[in-house]
């Protein structure tokens, strides 16, 4: 069996690489090898607990790819011979390829905490059977403790709290969502969680998970104890690089598969994309820890289009880090550097703020206040990052900020953006918060 393009992994990175490759090279045969027949939509995992209500409603569709002629092989790759251009699978198959793509994703980290092996302790896995077990355990539980206050921990906690469960989140930093938001925006998320009854233990570390064979409580380093029927550990993910390492591919200092700006690895005709591949920060070019489906799919479009020739000059300038979430009744978004991160990197910054209702007049039913914070380099005026809180419009506003960052827009250019407005859709044209924030920064320069 031989394919022109063989992709290991059927998550967002693998799927978009395959569909892009098929669109750019329609005469090439494309196949995806993945372990499970049914895969999950990674970003939808927290919502199986309440909003979706079941794991089965969060299945990643394969029909669009199948309609393009992409084949799916349900098997596990055990060995890759990059010289012979052959992969071997658990079922005994040998499959040849012309181009190979590693899209092997990542696995949740389980820290070395005493008692982490007890019954009732779970990671937030992307495996459908693991998630079903967690979903069933949460349904039976009354008290749930989440270790980790990043996006997954916060979203899972918010959703479980909506079921009427008693939820607590333990985070070692002094704020939630520290990778994406400055404290004033993190506080908005924290207040929304408190409204839902979520207990927050910030600046706290877990000493041990107590109980006989099954979890009964979480003990913190300061001596406090939180009763628990279920403990969910959400402290990050590690890239799945073992197969690539075994095949002799170069591994980066960030413990991910080394790639160039087109996703090419150290071996000819072998590519890597998504969580398993190296990410570099947009501003510093240092190794980035960002693992997002949106980042993976942007990389996948670059890889898929350029597998056989650089017919489309698409260069990966680095990972911006674009985040959005909903906590309680508030949507939050962030892109680029926070003010704190920018200052730590040595940037001299100016910060601008803007605030207004997302409808005009504000008396329109459903109107909500939108708050914007933009971070600019002081001398050049170039945008470095931005944060937004408000209604559903935040999801696209943060994408606009990301586009501004990717194109190195200045405060002056953002102050003079030409925009469209409508009473039922946007803030008033006289006071759009994004432009007001740019103007505020411009005045301070």
Q: Your description of this structure?
A:
The protein is an alpha/beta fold and 445 residues long. It folds into 3 domains: 173 residues, FAD/NAD(P)-binding domain; 126 residues, FAD/NAD(P)-binding domain; 116 residues, Enolase-like, domain 1 (2-Layer Sandwich), CATH 3.30.390. Helix content is 24%, strand content 26%. Strands 1, 2, 3, 4, 5, 6 and 17 form a 7-stranded mixed β-sheet that branches. The chain has a 5-stranded parallel β-sheet with strand order 8-15-9-10-11, with helices on one face. Strands 18-19-22-21-20 form a 5-stranded antiparallel β-sheet. β18 and β19 form a beta hairpin. α1 runs parallel beside α7. The longest helix has 13 residues. The termini are far apart.
Show the helix and strand layout:
Blueprint: E1 2-8, H1 12-24, E2 30-34, H2 63-67, E3 71-74, E4 77-81, E5 86-89, E6 94-102, E7 106-108, E8 121-123, H3 128-140, E9 143-147, H4 151-161, E10 166-171, H5 183-195, E11 199-202, E12 206-210, E13 217-220, E14 225-227, E15 230-233, E16 237-239, H6 242-246, E17 270-272, H7 293-305, E18 322-327, E19 330-336, H8 339-344, E20 349-357, E21 369-377, E22 383-390, H9 394-406, H10 411-415, H11 433-444
Parallel strand pairs: 1-2, 1-6, 2-3, 6-17, 8-15, 9-10, 9-15, 10-11
Antiparallel strand pairs: 4-5, 5-6, 7-16, 12-13, 13-14, 18-19, 19-22, 20-21, 21-22
């Amino acid at each position: 069996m031989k394919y022109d393009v063989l992709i290991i992994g059927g998550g967002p990175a693998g799927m978009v690489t395959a569909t892009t490759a098929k669109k750019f090279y329609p005469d090439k045969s494309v196949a995806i090898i993945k372990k499970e027949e049914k895969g999950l939509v990674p970003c939808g995992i927290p919502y199986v607990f309440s909003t979706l209500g079941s794991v089965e409603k969060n299945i990643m569709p394969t029909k669009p790819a199948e309609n393009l002629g992409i084949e799916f092989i349900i098997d596990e790759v055990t060995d890759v011979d990059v010289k012979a251009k052959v992969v071997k699978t658990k079922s005994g198959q040998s499959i040849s390829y012309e181009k190979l793509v590693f899209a092997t994703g990542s696995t949740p980290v389980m820290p070395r905490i005493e008692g982490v092996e007890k019954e009732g302790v779970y990671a937030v896995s992307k495996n459908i059977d693991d998630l079903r077990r967690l979903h069933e355990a949460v349904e039976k539980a009354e008290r749930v403790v989440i270790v980790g206050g990043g996006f997954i921990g916060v979203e899972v906690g918010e959703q479980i709290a909506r079921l009427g469960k008693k939820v607590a989140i333990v985070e070692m930093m002094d704020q939630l969502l520290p990778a994406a938001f400055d404290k004033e925006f993190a506080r908005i998320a924290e207040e929304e969680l408190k409204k839902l009854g979520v207990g927050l233990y910030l600046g706290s570390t877990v000493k041990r998970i107590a109980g006989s064979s099954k979890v009964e409580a979480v003990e913190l380093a300061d001596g406090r104890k939180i009763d628990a029927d279920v403990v969910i550990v959400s402290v990050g993910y590690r890239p799945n690089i073992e197969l690539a390492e075994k095949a002799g591919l170069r591994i980066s200092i960030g413990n991910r598969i080394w790639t160039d700006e087109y996703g090419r690895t150290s071996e000819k005709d072998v590519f890597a994309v998504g969580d398993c591949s190296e990410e570099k920060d947009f501003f510093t070019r240092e190794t980035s820890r960002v693992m997002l489906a949106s980042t993976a799919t942007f990389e996948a479009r670059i890889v898929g289009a350029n597998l056989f020739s650089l017919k489309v000059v698409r260069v990966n300038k680095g990972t911006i880090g674009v985040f959005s979430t909903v906590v309680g009744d508030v949507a939050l978004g962030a892109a680029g550097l926070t003010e704190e991160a920018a200052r730590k990197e040595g940037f001299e910054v100016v910060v601008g703020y803007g605030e207004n209702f997302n409808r005009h007049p504000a008396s329109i039913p459903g109107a909500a206040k939108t708050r914007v914070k933009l971070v600019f380099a002081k001398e050049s005026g170039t945008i470095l990052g931005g944060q937004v809180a408000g209604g559903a419009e935040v999801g696209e506003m943060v994408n606009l900020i990301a586009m501004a960052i990717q194109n190195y827009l200045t405060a002056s250019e953002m102050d003079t953006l030409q925009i469209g407005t409508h009473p039922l859709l946007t803030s008033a044209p006289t006071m759009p918060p994004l432009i007001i924030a740019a103007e505020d920064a411009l005045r301070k320069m």
